[in-house]
Amino acid sequence: MEITADGSTLVLHGAFDVRSTREVRDAINACLAGPDGEVVIDMSDVSTIDVTALRLLAVATRRAWLSGHHLTVRNPGPAVRRMAHLARLAHAIEVERVAATA
């Protein structure tokens, strides 16, 4: 897993699984501690995800909300969305809504 930070946007690259949750959690916490308190996690380059990583996103979303901040997931691929539904965590993770183009 590689994480690229662009302001308050974290771009994840590769497999997001139990081996990378600590690194992602630390990056999320650093962004939430910043002046903006907003975090966008771009997952367009995430190839696979496991339940541990999804739980991390769900917990981080809740903690951000409870502290008055905001965490949003951007561009989750079909595999990520499918796993979120199978793990019954899709409702606990806020996914950025993108306007449909004609």
Largest sheet: 4 strands, mixed
Give the CATH architecture.
2-Layer Sandwich
Mean pLDDT: 91
Per the CATH scheme, the topology name is: Transcription Regulator spoIIAA
Give helix % range.
25-40%
Which range does the strand content fall in? Answer: 25-35%
Structural class by helix and strand composition: alpha/beta
Domain count: the total is 1
Approximate shape: globular
Termini separation: 35 Å
Describe this structure in words.
The chain is of the alpha/beta class and 102 residues long. It has one domain (2-92): STAS domain (Transcription Regulator spoIIAA, 2-Layer Sandwich). It contains three helices and four strands, in the order ββαβαβα. It has helices spanning 21-32, 51-66, 78-86; strands at residues 2-6, 9-16, 38-49, 70-74. Strands 1-2-3-4 form a four-stranded mixed beta sheet. α1 (21-32) runs parallel beside α2 (51-66). The longest helix has 16 residues, at 51-66. The chain is globular and about 35 Å long. The chain starts with a strand and ends in a 16-residue tail after the last helix. The model has no long low-confidence stretch (mean pLDDT 91). This is STAS domain-containing protein. Residues 1-102 form the STAS domain.
Question: What labels would you give this structure?
Answer:
102 residues, alpha/beta, Transcription Regulator spoIIAA, 3 helices, 36% helix, globular, STAS_dom
